[in-house]
């Protein structure tokens, strides 16, 4: 559980770094990578909380 949280925070940090690099350089591939990382991070968060909720039902 702790490892998954750590990975999720690293992914969010990576997305933030990509957006900052996009703002600094103006190169669109940094924005594309940031959106892609953010999308998969949100999917992982929803799956993570879904597993927690289903685990509490039993």
Would you kindly provide a written description of the structure presented here, covering whatever features stand out?
The protein has one domain (2-57). It is built from two helices and no strands. The chain has helices at 2-25, 28-57. Helix 1 runs antiparallel to helix 2 (28-57). The protein is elongated and about 50 Å long. It starts with a helix and ends with a helix.
Tell me about the biggest sheet?
A: none
The number of distinct structural domains comes to 1
Total beta strands: 0
State the end-to-end distance: 19 Å
State the helical fraction: over 70%
Strand fraction equals under 5%
Mean pLDDT: 93
Low-confidence region ranges: none
Number of helices: 2
Q: Which class best fits the helix and strand makeup?
A: mainly alpha
- Radius of gyration in whole Å, from Cα? 14 Å
Note the quaternary state here.
single chain
SSE topology:
Layout: H1 2-25, H2 28-57
Helix pairs in contact: 1-2
Question: Short summary of the structure?
Answer:
This protein has 58 residues and is mainly alpha-helical. It has one domain. It has helices spanning 2-25, 28-57.
Q: What attributes does this structure have?
A:
mainly alpha, 58 residues, single chain
